[in-house]
Amino acid sequence: MTTNNTMKKLFLIDGHALIFRTYYAFLRRPMVNSKGEDTSILFGFTKILTDLIIKEKPTHLAVAFDPPAKTFRHEIFPEYKANRSETPELIKSALEPLKDILSTLCIPVIMKEGFEADDVIGTISKRAENKGFEVYMVTPDKDYGQLISNNIVQYKPGKSGDEAEIIDRQKICDYFGIDDPIQVIDILTIWGDASDNIPGIRGIGEVGSKKLVSKYKTVENIYNSLNELPEKQRAAFEEAKDRIQLSKHLVTIDTNVDVELDEEQLKLE
Q1: pLDDT, tens digit, for every residue of 105-117?
Q2: Whole-angstrom Cα distance, residue 230 to residue 239?
Q3: Is the overall model pTM greater than 0.90, yes or no?
Q4: How far apart are the C-alpha atoms of 29 and 245, rounded to whole Å?
Q5: Strand partners of residue 25
Q6: CA separation (Å) from 134 to 7, 87, 116?
Q7: How many alpha carbons fall within 13 Å on the CB side of residue 54?
């Protein structure tokens, strides 16, 4: 990704990822105002946002939040995220004040019923790329790797004052040993995700899934080559055969959500 002064730079922030990150950062030393209210999330979120605006100088900006209701993934797999503990009340109660802060800053909030923030960000990222934008997806979430392209990067905010990490196409391919970022989908399909309750292939984690996709390119190719796998791996893939396409569907970010890309609305004032 090359930047010049005339380039349109769109930063899309995964709002809930940033809320959770801020919540845990202040968990042991919360900020409390004169009324006894915990303002840690509001302060931390706003600071990260303003620091980013000053440092990176985006021309366009938006924040996407997950809707409070369930999404299409719950419809196709009711157990999706079923083993997650209840969201802390402080996180739930931060959403409306944060939306007010963003409204005051003239930063649009995008939320689409039935879809997660990553689906919204994925859709807008791809459409913005086609309109000549450089797109920065602000999130620590590994799932976003599948969206990275020549003009779309992942911007991982630094921890404890560290510099942010920018993950581009070369970096994601080198890390996973793949040819194309879209293959992150196949890696996540095999790896699974305990926090989202997505069943992968039993006994195969990050290292194993990277090796398999590096060699065979797709999940489908692995199933066409089961006779080449060690007996234990072959048995694990055969055991998962009936659910593997469900897992792939669950980890795939939808880039065709019905959301509008309004350049004027996204312009940073």
Answers
A1: 999 999 999 999 9
A2: 14
A3: yes
A4: 44
A5: none
A6: 7, 33, 22
A7: 6
